[in-house]
């Protein structure tokens, strides 16, 4: 019988031996900050305000400026929080952040955040005709700006075409966040060789929480604390990755940042928590479990 998942064979978590502790800790927190460029002269990928009279307009001033507020103000708050708490974040950026918002890109580089590929600008890869060229442009732009290898990728909207993992692998990507199947890294099959799937989240993710479910200001902090309480219930018997997915225009507003910052202070002080970026997690796992047939 064929495996229902064409990339990652099915397994029960309970059938898999627990991973050893990461730097002596059982909860690996990856703070994944999505930093996006929404072109002013194109339709917005998402809207906080529906258009008056139901007529969409370009430029879409309120929704464009909603997102740019996040780049100006929300990112300043997130950078300050990470500095205060000693957190090195993963910066899942559209490559045009480097060219259109170089001051922001430089601030993330100075903060030693890891640059993770996230497309050229905020557009689903599956809708782009020449997706291969888009991947190449995104990676080359980020690598040239940052001087980093840019080894990890998250598709805009987690969007892929059928051969996207192969395209990424051939362009030097080692780690992929699009597949939401586990709390630990897992190897996935591609025709270009094994690719490591890294945990991502739609549960500890500010867009589903606030933009889709319209939950209250403290909902992200509440979920983080509930996650940790459940891990504690099991005695932290398994090492897990807890990715926290953020967008500065969503989490970076004051009424959400207050409770979120407090929750991050609790994580930073927790004896079972270590913060790590995408490639740090990927390299740790690969050292324990090398790529199949590699």
UniProtKB/TrEMBL annotation:
It comes from the Bacteria. GO terms for biological process: carbohydrate metabolic process. This is Uncharacterized protein (DUF433 family). It comes from Roseococcus suduntuyensis.
